[in-house]
Amino acid sequence: MLHNQTDLTSIPVQVPVVLPSEPAASPPCSIEASVLHVINGEYFSGAERVQSHLGRCLPNFGIAADFVCVKPGKFPQVMAEQNLQWGRCHLAPMKSRFDLRAVFRIRDLVQAYGYELLHAHTPRTAMVASAASRLTGVPWVYHVHSPAARDSVHQWSNRINSWMERASLLSCSHLITVSESLRLDCIAKGASEDKVTVVHNGVPSIRPERIHHPVVGGRWVFGMVALMRPRKGLEVVLDALSILRGEGLDVVLRCIGPFETAEYETEINEQIDRLKLRRYVERVGFTDDVPGELARVDALVLPSLFGEGLPMVVLEAMAAAVPVIATRVEGTPEAVTDGVEGLLAEPRDAVSLAKKIRSLVTGEYDWTSMAEAAHQRQTQSFSDLSMAWGTAEVYRKLIDSPDMDRGHNRLGDARLTHVSQQDSFVAAGYRD
Ligand SMILES: CC(=O)N[C@H]1[C@@H](OP(=O)(O)OP(=O)(O)OC[C@H]2O[C@@H](n3ccc(=O)[nH]c3=O)[C@H](O)[C@@H]2O)O[C@H](CO)[C@@H](O)[C@@H]1O
């Protein structure tokens, strides 16, 4: 599916899906097909939220979704702990990037449970799904959450991931990208236009009761929600906070989320002390209650430096009717229009960020209108259901394509005895 470089200006833009009616009101459809999501499963962060929302919502559109984790960790733990209406979670731990036993385990699962599609989410799982697809004849979809070549600050890891991703894409049946910017990125890398579809990320419309309402001249509470690591740009917010407090504006920051490393936490603590901001920065750490935290803040600030797809925290804040002050990186401007649902600053630029924050706290923009616009845009175009609907449409086109022989994998449960069930479990409340 790779071809030579394309002129991106000639490619029509794919805009967010707006569902014609509220699908939540309709009863779940009967199940027409089942998909196995091949995931890392190590954490429960942005990509895993997408996966879990899909697992929960796809049955509304006739698709049963199960999971297999190649780096089992937080994801299967959350699935086991919470009373979630998801499907099965299988485990296929890989000892290294090149441990191919997972491929055979997935082949056995496909044959045993009759999965008609594989759906991978990371360069590692793309490699595994690609090989399992070759063994089983089942097509596979690759979900691009962020640009592999700019995915971390580690150049070698970026190169290996990029290489693995490119090699796997040769056999991929279809690509789903979480933003239009990533779709263009994939096409620029050589993916053919008709095999890439944008399915914007989506979240449930959770709008908590507000604890605080900001007023011009009063205190403004900004919240940054993330796994704190250098790429998220916490340093830039601290510099912006220092500029604004120096001007006499009463702005404070709640840092919501854990630090990836102790070294980074130490660096941030030193910066806070250097800027004399200790009284104005509250460290919340990891929370299970992000909506509760969003109810306390007047705006979300997400100053990512590079390499985002479409951050879930941006959409979660919009759902909670919290304006978003973010940077113009990758997919974020597709959800937030500068001056409407929030404000967009230039990345790595504390002066630009301070300017945007200043314009909100001094009343240049009406906070209430911005909060309402954010909530409305999320419910219309970035809901968990619109994301599941868009994903189901991609599956349906693949399953209905003349190339797909639906009979080949209809053995289903008849062959269950051939696969070890020791490493699989079913979430409580499973639809069977
Ligand atoms: C580096 C990377 O690969 N980033 C990708 C990752 O986002 P990444 O995981 O970096 O960040 P996101 O904002 O998407 O997700 C973080 C998630 O963790 C939750 N949270 C955070 C802090 C806390 O204390 N408690 C808590 O529950 C947030 O509510 C949110 O649901 O997946 C996104 C979803 O496709 C992509 O758009 C991003 O490009």
TrEMBL record:
Domain of life per record: Bacteria
**InterPro entries in alphabetical order:** Glyco_trans_4-like_N
Q: What is this protein called?
A: D-inositol-3-phosphate glycosyltransferase
Gene3D superfamilies referenced in this protein's UniProt entry, alphabetically? Glycogen Phosphorylase B (3.40.50.2000)
Could you tell me which residue ranges the Glycosyltransferase subfamily 4-like N-terminal domain spans?
Answer: 45-202
